[in-house]
Queue: 3 jobs
Job 1
Amino acid sequence: MSIGVFVPGASALHRLPPGLKLAGLAVYAVAVSLTDNAYVMAALLAVLGAAWAISGIGMARLLAALKPLVWILAALFVFQLAVSGVRPAMDMLLTVGAVVVAAALVSHTTRTDDMLAALKTAFGVFAPLGVNAQSCAFAVVFTIRLVPFVATVGREAIAARMARGASGNPLPAVVPVIIRLMRETDQLAEGLVARGFGRA
Amino acid sequence: MHAGSAALKTAAMPVSSAVIDAKALVRCALFAALIAALGLLPPIPVPVLPVPVTAQTLGVMLAGAVLGPRRGALAVVLFLGVVAVGFPLLAGGRGGLGAFFAPSAGFLLGWVPGAFVVGALAVGATSLLRLIAACLTGGIGVVYLVGIPWMAAVADLSLAQASVASLAFVPGDILKAVLAALAARAVHRGYPALGA
Amino acid sequence: MTILIDNVSVRFGDVSVLEGLSLDLRERRIGIIGNNGSGKSTLARLLNGLVLPSAGRVVVEAFDTRTHGADVRKLVGFVFQNADAQIVMPTVAEDVAFGPKAHGLAPQDVAARTEKVLAQFNLAALKDRACFNLSGGEKQSLALAGVLALDPRWVVFDEPTTMLDRKRAKTAMNAITALPQHVIVVTHHVELLEGFERVIVLEAGKVVCDASPREAIAHYLDTYI
């Protein structure tokens, strides 16, 4: 059930400390969403393009990262176009696209192990408050890892319902999907413990 | 007498506390991921309002109703944390700290106490009505209690104006609360609770 | 080298999964067979402390599973039926390294063990590959590699062949019998246990036969076929 997002490579982007990449992503996302200035936006996009060129990640993988969003973006674009006009609609597309690509670059050039280590250091700050940094770091990594899995299971369930002649309405599929997901993640939890996770 | 269902067996047996902890952790991550995945369903944009109606609040109510108050709220915190770092997991592909400065951000932050209250009211609830009441109170009442003043402050509206603007979401949210309650009841029946 | 099961019962509510089980496991190759619901999967999980006894105790070497779970799991590796369930990290090498890291080994030891096991299972060339994209056979190798990276003394297999076709089941079983570790295999594919030293038949939570493979398998087949 795992999804590997890391693409091996030796680029400068791969070698950057993961903490720095995550912080950079946060700053970049804020900058892109807050700017109204076309020149600033162009500069931000140029930075993104340069980062992509350095990373050596193929175009196909970037498009794959954008693919799950195609429909929702199309819907929002049409809505913005109708309500606010061309310019805001384009703005929305560029902003969302830039953040998605930036996030994809970070996850594609960062080993999960390194990401975990960075998160553990970050959560370590809260250790005096009784926060278990290791568990928090794993929770974050599992969340990122489980999103595509949940989406896949959901899509399969919808497709299965449609194959049996039910409508495309996904909501009746929610319960079997949740139960299947919980069963599989419970197995994963057992697997984690069997291999030494949580020293109890 | 002998055990029939394998699932029932594993969860209800005296399992190691390490297993229970790991299951809790992975379930929080699962519901955080579920909230994210629900954001991939097409939203219904409402004219005039800067907040599209999404299925993500359904995930928030489910997290509370299925995982309970503490873990439900944790799942939401986890989701928002991953969004804050920049992963574009909000409906419409939004992500990053920027999302927390928008007029609608109060509704996002309201999800945390919202999921907690849903969970607190849903603990031990078997009747559908009680579950629906829990989802309505936490998923709508508490979320709006945070979201509306926030929107008023950020978008420079009066509380009354912000409330009126939010009315547009109420029908959709009621529908989601009912769905969340139905789904939570079915999940409770079809799958054993953690470490029982 | 002993796993001692001392008068163990596992129950929940008024349902009993295992009842008054006492076994002394020291052989190098042990098979456990039984039908669905016989309690064999629960017995497997008792051996590394994933499931704890409601009454009685399970002792691995000197460690009681109730009080020394982490130590027990270092000694007793567990290979699940579904390889996907125990692949926890996104790439092959990271996944193999997961166990040694979780047990707190020093980074250079983690790296050394990972490399050794990857080479042993012909996974070295795949080390940066996404686990998600591996073939079924590769995933099974990875699952086993991840467990052996912990350098356990026992390896427990929970229905290792149930999800495989006959040919792959044979290959998997050959890999299992070639292991230098003590091996305990839970299965209902009785033909796989022919070369084993001891086979235990479970039925409704009780041991109904504990003997040589020939005798135990005959007992099992007589009863059910």
Note: Chain A is about 75% helix and 0% strand.
Job 2
Amino acid sequence: MLRYILSFLRIIATKMLQLLSSRKHLIENVLRIYIKTTSGSTLSIEIDPKYDIKQIKNLVASKIGAQPEELKIIFAGKELGDNIIIEECDLGQQSILHAVKIKRNVPTDQSSSKMKPLCEILDDEMFSSNITNSRSNSFSTDNEVINISNSVMLENSTIRSKKIHFYVYCPTCKDLKQGKLRVRCHFCKSGAFTVHADPQNWIHVLEPKQITGTCENNPELCKDILQNKEPTFAEFYFKCSEHISLGETDQAVPLDLIRPNLKQIQCMACLDTSDTIFAFPCPDDHVMCLDCFKQYCLTKLTERQFWQHPEYGYTLACPTGCPDSFIKEIHHFRLLDDENYNRYHHFAAEEFVLQSNGLLCPQPGCGMGILAEPECTRISCQNCKYVFCRHCRQGFHIGECDVVENNDTAGQNFSCESDMNYNNGNSGELASRTTIKIMTKPCPSCKTPTERDGGCMHMICTRAGCKFHWCWVCQTEWTTECMGDHWFG
Amino acid sequence: MAALPRRIIKETQRLMQEPVPGISAVPDDSNARYFHVIVTGPEDSPFEGGLFKLELFLPEDYPMSAPKVRFITKIYHPNIDRLGRICLDILKDKWSPALQIRTVLLSIQALLSAPNPDDPLANDVAELWKVNESEAIRNAKEWTRRYAMDN
């Protein structure tokens, strides 16, 4: 009897274990996705990545009371054909598919490529060449670039997956990640949208209104936008492929200059060939590996050699001096660590103030940006309450500014009697201020304190936005007289 | 001291295996970032026949920053001052990490063939080069004979 009970228990235990392990197996393969319908409802369904679209249609149809044949499944700007397997679609957990009910049962004349998901159609080589910034280039040049990369690809096609790699800065992961391309209606922002053509390059993806499409969400409204008879356009955006989607607003910034190194180009700095590269926006394929790019940014940041570009912001160009090679998407500088990215922001703000003819408060530890009327010489800092003279940056005074002699001992030659705040500063600030005063002379143009650590008397302002040529002796613009009289002091 | 970057190792190896004609650059035994350089005076220049010693140093953030190069041998040249400092744009604001030790030294050799008195560093030399070129060239030859030959 006991033996019978024991064997019975054993059987139960084994069955339970089997059940548990099979369930575990099931859970591993489940993809939870959302289906948005045009009626506005969202279904949450669990599917096997091995399902095809036909199975999805059956699942959805039963839930919304429609026939599977009446449904279109749209994902990333594409209507997915019945034979597409979910696995092929670059879907992550909690991705959103759109189910649209076809009103008239007209057989669609879509080509087979259109029925494939976007990620299967886009090739890496389309996006790897530097054709984004050369819009003025003739078409033949573009084709040439593509042909070159195609021939290289042929050799590598056996080893290399052709699946496109996009890189993004993900604000959720706070890091560089691989990204996924997604599409929505430019007008109503709905994802129930199909593109009329596939994007062929970065211009199509990054610039607005490049590719037209059909909005399934609100076809009547979006068909001809605002009676202008303009069809609606695709709006491309990116998601991080490494965290579970946090909904439709969870987006990432495309870093279009970071690319897979399909052409196997050497980094110009370390001469290594790495898999992922930063491609400068110049026609000559100047690239750096990501580590060297970070180092390049850091060096240029420390030297204050970033440029305030009127359109793009505080940015860098190709280090070899290629024309018009400024980095447009300044989120590329997110590759800097947090501390240096904060410095980047700080310097960018300062440069913006200076280029707007503003001033920075000279008080150590303050540096507040101040935009004052050009004729106003008495500048008052709202932040630290320091009141100073626009011209000599010393405490405000009446009458001429004193010329500060470089070799003077600390604090002797202050021009102003009314400088109340100066003595209020703590000793550290006082010491730095004194040191700066002894060691440096201001650039006659932008007043940047400048130290001369050797060489001739010909100074070039170190601030990238200034670059004023001046004479260390005269403290005015550098002239041939300076060269003749006291070039070397 | 930090490990020597692969870029410097690669460049050094290439300088040894495929030296640039007329230029030798040998890293110092105790400091692989410091190079002893000898540039031969180019043919058909006042520096022909001379062997010019230079020192070249790769700073910590090379190749993001330019190498520091200086003539040790005295030379009469409008773009090189009495301390041997060289006025060459690629050593200053035109530096790019795509340039290398070899390209820098080639540019310096080219500067010996084509002095540029309009962008001078040694003013007196430049002045003479502009006013009385033949006398300047005579001086340059004399200095080459006196300082850059024999030893």
Note: The interface with chain A takes residues 5-7, 10-11, 61, 63-65, 81, 85, 93-94, 96-98, 121, 123 of chain B (CB under 8 Å).
Job 3
Amino acid sequence: MPEVKVSRLSKQFGDNAVLRDITFTIADGEFFTLLGPSGCGKSTTLACIAGLERPTSGSIAVGPATFVDSGTFVPPEGRNLGMVFQSYALWPHLTVAQNLAMPLRIRKVDRRRQDELITESLAKVGLAELKNRYPHQLSGGQQQRVALARALVYSPSVLLLDEPLSNLDAQLREQARAWLKRLQAELGITTVYVTHDQEEALALSDRIAVMSEGDMVQIGTPKEIYETPATARVAAFVGRCNFLTGTVTGQAEVRLDCTGQTLAVLPGAAGDGRRVSVAIRPERLEILPEGRTAPAGVNVLTAQVLTGSYIGSRYEYDLRLGDHVIQVESNRAGLTGEVTLLADPSACLVYPTTDVLPEDAEALLTVSH
Amino acid sequence: MTTLSPPRPAVHPPPRYRRPLGLARESWLHYGVLLLLAVLVLAPVVPTLYQSFLDRPLYEAGGILSVDNYVRLFTEAGFGRVVLNTALFAGLTTLLSLLIAVPMAVVVVRTKLPGGRLFAAAMQWPFFISSLILGFGWITIYGPAGFVSVEVRRMLGFLPWNLYSIPGMAVTEAVALAPIVYTFCANALRQSDASLEAAAQVCGAGPLRILRSVILPMLRPPIVYSSILVISMSVETLSVPLLFGQPVGIDVFSTFLYRNGLQSISPDYGVLGAASAIILLVTVSLVALQAKLLKNAQRFVSVRGKATRPRRLDLGWLKWVSVAAIACYVVLGALVPIGGLVFRSFTLVFTPLQSPFRTLTGANYERIFTYPVYVQSIVNSLLVAAIGAVLVSGLSLLAVMVARRSDFRFARAVEYLALAPQAMPGIIVGIGLFWALAFAPFGLGTLVQGTLWALIIGFGLRALPSGFGSISPSIMQIGRELDNAARVSGADWVRTFTRILAALLRPAFAGALILTFVTLLKEYSPAVFLGSADSNIIGTTMLELWVQGNTGSVAALASLQIAITATFVGLAGLLLKGRNDA
């Protein structure tokens, strides 16, 4: 299984730049996810790897084979990749077995070997007994697995997955996710996965590339992406986050706009007087039990409980901090009135932008006095 | 996963596709389709334009370019009068067909109407009946010596209408074209959101108020669009002006060309070319305008996946008025003339003065079947329609594939070329191809000229937009991911088409075959220039018999053509249905 090298990839539709200078390398056998909101260019990147889009510039190579470079363009049929589409794209006039046979027939694999490969591939996805059904006779989850079997039957060098789980219902999606991860690990096939679902990306990937508006914003392991997001935008997109605007007042201090209070943050933030956003994950804010005192070196915030909701495994509280609403996760029930919050400086990430959230979302998070 | 084994070679490498002269095979196909369409579309146009500036027939040597033809067109040839007639005829036709069709669409689609579904189905009649046959039918019934006219004259002492006039022509043409307007308006009404009306109802608006304030404004785009379509169709039509206007000397565009090109002893090719060029300019601008409007209109039409079931309004006693009006249109406009024509084919004399039942006869049909020329014209029509339908549908399918499903650089050009014949009046296609064949290299022209192939090319070109238009929506419904899946699996463009899309497009192709067959069977106008004694078709034979005054045989041929169309559509429908059920 070869590595995938994408470098300086750009794609332009007229004046509109869909991809700008994208560079990344996927290691052999790695599960690599392109994550981002719709329109960020992740699907275009995948289509460029597949050969379904022709990039404006840049190069793409898989192992020793160069697919795209200046003057070179290998069409999709010459790349020997496997791909699962969002709609599964099973050919409706062919049975499951015939769907799997098509790529083998195109490759002129002999008849007996075809049957072996089809049976083997369907067994991998656990659908061997459905080989004579037509796609419309299958459930969504079965169709998705047939699509995967079809993409794997001819042993492609790389597997490309374009939001393959997005059409499944929530329950099935989680099971399919776990199953997909096991299958990929078992096969050890280099996999490029496209999704807008950050939970899916975190759960599945060896590494994640976060994209936004045609730019590659951050590449890293799920842990790196979640705990040290490179930009405020990544923090907002991957997982939930409270954003508090403020002004830098010292080496590792920010004065918050909402309360005027000074917060100790991770050192290394920009110079004095800079306007910044402090990002704190809801689960990193701790509600101090009554009668206990705060440990030293930890930020202490006083807030009022607005609403609390029970979401099964834990409680979520909307709290009022000055004129701002913040969210906190806790396993304590029934909190009301004034509470004391603890925030470790290491949980307070500082970003030099103040307009992280769209205006309407910002409006919902403001309380008038 | 981390073992450092050397990269394995692909177990099943994708096939290598041949690239003749370094170009992928789909590129050859794409350029081939583009070239074929360009030759077909330009063949009638370029010689026409060239001829319009040439001082002598274009096959004679030593021609000099000048605008003299255009000057003579308006001075000697009296083309100004023709322009005026055409404008009056087209304007009146459009107005009348809107008056007939718009209210009808509203009451049929949006109100509770007894027999509404029947009326909706009845609006499909022009699919089976050509305007030439309708013209014959109208003359048989409402002409100066028509069945109804004679009866009315006997009762009133005079005839309150004159069919052989511009208003008479316009009424007939409007009857023929009203279903087009109806279709556009009815579709718009069906697709529009019924909750708009519900909202008006909740606000307390009565049915008439809703009609006026909610439904009619919604109809503006389809009205504008179909008006332009009707204008351009009445500008190019030959049948009704030829049958009604020619005897009394009313010339419009098409009959001007017909008279100057066919009936004069030494046709003035320069004037003919200039007139054709001007007419082409008019029709091309109309079609361009129509395309632009449609593009704009689509921007604010919201067709939602969720089907809203429109609640139909109750018009009360007005609905009986509506039923009467619609029945009047269907019965008097189409049923009586066509039924009369069919009846006429079984009698010797057709007049209310003597019961037609007394002269019931099969002689009209006998005559047709005893003369080999007439039988031949039926066979020719069937041949042209059958071969033409296969070729046109095939070419349309390729053109749609290239225009909609390829990354070919000139995909748009392919689409425009395939739709361009919309703007080419049949008679100009005839004249232009006639010149093109006279001009063609390697003696190709003489090989084709006057044969059925000339007709197949001319008719086929005219039917190409319908073929393209009937396949194109089907391909848009096939998800692009199905192609992409095939491409990634190792199929090149050509193989994706043969292995995947061809099978999925089979129903659309069958639909295109039926549509183009019927279209080609009804077509005749290019044949008045392209045909010869050996390549007569039903349409041209009917015209010939009509000029000879042999109306009984015309009626018989017309009835045969209707019967053939109906049988074919019926059989094809059954066949397709059977296959879908299986």
Note: The mean pLDDT of chain A is 89.
